[in-house]
Structure prediction request, 224 residues.
Amino acid sequence: AQSVTQPDIHITVSEGASLELRCNYSYGATPYLFWYVQSPGQGLQLLLKYFSGDTLVQGIKGFEAEFKRSQSSFNLRKPSVHWSDAAEYFCAVVFPTGNQFYFGTGTSLTVIP
Amino acid sequence: DTGVSQNPRHKITKRGQNVTFRCDPISEHNRLYWYRQTLGQGPEFLTYFQNEAQLEKSRLLSDRFSAERPKGSFSTLEIQRTEQGDSAMYLCASSPVNEQFFGPGTRLTVL
Prediction:
């Protein structure tokens, strides 16, 4: 069965420090990949997406992600975290032949001053 | 604002009552999804419409749940005989294809 794994339930970083959130998927084919951010009580906002081509993709708010086919991973990065980045982050996949999106369980980010 | 809207934003009900939520998608999007999200979890797929046709339903969607999308525009999700386990955030997303735009969600609390 298809699945999306976010190994880190919770991460705490200092403001200004770099950030990497991990995401792995399991499936034979390469899916389309997404990262979303969710603030408390709100819906999900798309940060970035990967369909094909350059494996390093840039998103909004200074985020980027790198697709590594050999590792079935799509990790999210930011070089310098701001206090406003504190939120829940979700990785999601959809397979080109399907319609259903699969989400990971999320990583909660805390930013300390 | 031309984004996805959901109403109500919050709903408190007593166990056994019926509730209905509404989602208004981005007008040019022909796909619409419903998800349920509980605390500490990612969104779980419930059902999917392409225009007015309901094409997929999750096994999570018991027969107490029903969704409609008349005329391929707005959608409603109804839960009959609510149970405390139905307490969750219900998210709607609209999609042109291979990308989703989420609404703010409806928070349901069943007492």
